[in-house]
Sequence to fold (184 residues):
Amino acid sequence: MLADKTLFLRRLIRNPKQVSAIAPSSRYLGRAMARGLGPQTGRVVEFGPGTGSLTRAILAAGVAPSQLTLFELDPTFSASLTAAFPGLRVLNQPADRAHEHVAPGVGAVVSGLPLLSMPAPVSRAIVASAFRILAPGAPYIQFTYGPKPSVPPAVIEEFGLAVEQTAFVWANLPPARVHSFTRK
Fold:
């Protein structure tokens, strides 16, 4: 865990806009994000795993390593994830291109990406890519530090999404809300 925090701080100093957080996600946030996932979920895709905090929780929930694909844009984080999680598919690719690398029918997309700090067309493209690979009824799970969902209302309307706040995690720096988005 100390190595994760050190790596996180190094990457934050080098590229604060891309990392866009003040600390790695807590294990409590990880558990909240992975709630409901398990062997029955099938394939899971994670966007922006960083140091792997959410990845650990997804695996602990029972998702098999062979069923988990990670999209991490930072090459240093990607290399660290590849070393830390043998058997996982780690792609050093942007999340908005997930549909080019993953076949449709995914059981869940779990996102640690800072959608609110991204330009609107980029965050929209990420959500669009997620829903191109998700199976019907499967969730896009996203956390935010703010009071509202990080997917803008216009995007929610455009894609016909239902949104539900599934958790509020005080034990995270800063505290975070977890939202689940599904097609209506």
Summary: The CA atoms of residues 68 and 169 lie 24 Å apart.
